[in-house]
């Protein structure tokens, strides 16, 4: 009888192990065209919606690009950025580090289009990543094939955000270390900061280089324009006071950014450091000369960023609305 019990126990262990192994086998992780069977039109729908929104609101492309950085950099690429605040938890969207971020409601527009086609299938995390990919292409950047299969997180990471996100006023050493923590090397950092080729910077973020005294590192020819756009030493955060990151090609992701920062026309401290630090300057010069090199390094870095510690398989959930975890829906 004892031997029979032992045999049954051993079989139970084997069965449990096989179930565990099969569960692992069912999680392919991130793969190309993850929705090919469950929602074949998913990527086309996202691309179509991004194009429509860009046609109506040009700044959406800049928002999509900033979203992938702010979401995927902070511990996991799981759309935690998109969650609204609750009575107990602050949204990442409402922290100081998300100042100037906008157009979140249009991600909901994309989600609604997907829900009409394939209810409960496509994650907000994948929408966030693929909208960034298509937004990059819409402003003249490279088309970057990206894997899908992410699932959505259930909690905001506002409380730990500062531990992960590099700040434009930090030393370049800290910036490089934080990127290295998620596997992005120095040329990748230089390429990703080429995102400053498009969009604009609010005066709040750059007046410390103008007042009480002008930063002598700034190109004097550029200073006059910056002072004209930012006439107040303490600007109103809600006022429409900003400077375009690249006056030459403000709506185009290109390597003009690198020529600008080599000419001391970078708006942010990190832009200036990038062009003067011996660790990064060689890559800045190389990207200033070759847009192909910039695009190849940019695509590689975006790919690494998009694959940072995703939730896959049975982890997380597929939200019904991107701004709410399902338990709060």
TrEMBL record:
InterPro entries: Haem_peroxidase, Haem_peroxidase_sf, Peroxidase_pln, Secretory_peroxidase. Ca(2+) 2 binds at residues 246, 249, 254. This is Peroxidase. Removal of H(2)O(2), oxidation of toxic reductants, biosynthesis and degradation of lignin, suberization, auxin catabolism, response to environmental stresses such as wounding, pathogen attack and oxidative stress. These functions might be dependent on each isozyme/isoform in each plant tissue. CDD domains: secretory_peroxidase. It catalyses: 2 a phenolic donor + H2O2 = 2 a phenolic radical donor + 2 H2O. Ca(2+) 1 binds at residues 71, 74, 78, 80, 92. The active site is at 70 (proton acceptor). It is found in: Secreted. Disulfide bonds join 39-118, 72-77, 124-322, 203-230. GO terms for biological process: hydrogen peroxide catabolic process; response to oxidative stress; rhythmic process. The record marks 66 as: Transition state stabilizer. It comes from Dorcoceras hygrometricum. Belongs to the peroxidase family. Classical plant (class III) peroxidase subfamily. Residues 1-23 form the signal peptide.
């Amino acid at each position: 009888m004892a031997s029979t019990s032992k045999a049954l126990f051993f079989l139970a262990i084997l069965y449990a192990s096989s179930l565990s192994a099969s569960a692992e086998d069912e999680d392919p992780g991130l793969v190309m065209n993850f929705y090919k069977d469950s929602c074949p039109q998913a990527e086309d729908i996202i691309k179509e919606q991004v194009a429509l929104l860009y046609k109506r609101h040009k700044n959406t492309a800049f928002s999509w690009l900033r979203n992938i950085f702010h979401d995927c950099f902070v511990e996991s690429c799981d759309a935690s950025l998109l969650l609204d605040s609750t009575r107990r938890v602050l949204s990442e969207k409402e922290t100081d580090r998300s100042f100037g971020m906008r157009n979140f409601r249009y991600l909901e527009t994309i989600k609604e289009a997907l829900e009409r086609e394939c209810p409960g299938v496509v994650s907000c995390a994948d929408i966030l990543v693929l909208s960034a990919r298509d937004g990059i292409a819409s402003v003249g950047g490279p088309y970057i094939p990206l894997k899908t299969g992410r699932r959505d997180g259930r909690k905001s990471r506002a409380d730990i955000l500062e531990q992960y996100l590099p700040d434009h006023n930090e030393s370049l050493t800290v910036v490089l270390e934080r990127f290295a923590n998620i596997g992005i090397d120095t040329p990748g950092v230089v390429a990703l900061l080429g995102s400053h080729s498009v969009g604009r910077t609010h005066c709040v973020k750059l007046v410390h280089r103008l007042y009480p005294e002008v930063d002598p590192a700034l190109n004097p020819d550029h200073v006059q324009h910056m002072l004209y756009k930012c006439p107040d030493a303490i600007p109103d955060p809600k006022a429409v006071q900003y400077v375009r990151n690249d006056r030459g090609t403000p709506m185009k992701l290109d390597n003009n950014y690198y020529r600008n920062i080599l000419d001391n026309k970078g708006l942010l401290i990190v832009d200036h450091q990038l062009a003067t630090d011996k660790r990064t300057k060689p890559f800045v010069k190389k990207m200033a000369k070759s847009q192909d090199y910039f695009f190849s390094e940019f695509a590689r870095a975006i790919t690494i960023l998009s694959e940072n510690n995703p939730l896959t398989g049975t982890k997380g959930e597929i939200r019904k609305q991107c701004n709410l975890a399902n338990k709060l829906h």
